[in-house]
């Protein structure tokens, strides 16, 4: 277990950023934390890097910053009023990455009736230092899932031919290694998806303590409101350069099991659903990291695979 680096923080409460490889349980943790009466976490934002890049320059207007956020294909997920965000931006004393990010997230949290906010965008695992520069109270929760299960889950949703399994394994290892290197200088912890599913309350208590979030049992019952929270995403996600349109039913189905309690029987699906060739290819690259994280490696004589679950199901979270 990697412990967070202790350092002085600003007076405000910590801001969680949930990051990790796609399909590693980030949605599951988002819903758990968002169920807390004090915490609001929107659907994936994705616009933060572009907003930082634009607003760190002098002379950027409130209208230009507003256009970056509202022009992003994720904007329709947030159920926010465009005019209200523009009013916030134009009332700022200055336009820079910190003020514009805070204004967006504060507006979203107010709409949810919550005093605190966070973010869940997996790919920000590559942007942690950049975010920390502008939001110094940021605390990063890196979700890690067995890369073979993450690959299986993603390939069920992918809308084009998947890359070779060796490439998938290389990316999985590299993202974990790069995140750890960046995390040495940040407030950063790792949470394994499998531990969160098997030992939900102890892991959630650890995360809540890290985030200085008072414990509330509502986080354990996140699934009771999951459908309502994920309804924000039930629209077609428009296409953009390099990314195809994602139909609403495709997006909804990706998170269908978050409306149920965590189910440990859904773990290690790769043992029965992944071909021996793909297992060999993944482990040929990632075996050392798999072992370090405590995952079975077939080459080490892993035990019998568990009984297969009904077809069409998979682990909750993304």
Tell me about this structure.
Helix content is about 45%, strand content about 10%. The chain is α/β, with parallel strands linked by helices and about 325 residues long. The protein has a domain at about 15-40 and about 120-235 and about 250-300: 3-Layer(aba) Sandwich (Rossmann fold), CATH 3.40.50. The protein has a four-stranded parallel beta sheet, with helices on both faces. Strands 2-3 form a two-stranded parallel ribbon. Helix 2 (about 50-55) crosses helix 5 (about 95-110). The two termini are about 20 Å apart. Residues about 1-10 and about 305-315 have low confidence and may be disordered.
The overall average pLDDT, rounded, is 89
Number of strand elements: 6
Nearest-angstrom radius of gyration? 20 Å
Percent helix range: 40-55%
Terminal CA distance: 22 Å
Work out the helix count: 14
User: Quick one: overall form?
Assistant: globular
The name of the CATH superfamily of the domain at 15-41 and 118-233 and 248-299 reads P-loop containing nucleotide triphosphate hydrolases
Sheet-strand content, in percent, reads 5-15%
- Top-tier CATH class of the domain at 15-41 and 118-233 and 248-299: Alpha Beta
Which structural category do the helix and sheet elements fall into?
alpha/beta
**CATH topology term of the domain at 15-41 and 118-233 and 248-299:** Rossmann fold
CATH A-level architecture of the domain at 15-41 and 118-233 and 248-299: 3-Layer(aba) Sandwich
Spatial order of the strands forming the largest sheet = 4-1-5-6
Could you name the ranges where pLDDT drops below 50 across 5 or more consecutive residues? 1-9, 303-316
Largest sheet: 4 strands, parallel
Query: H/E order of the elements?
Result: EHEHHHHEEHEHHEHHHHHH
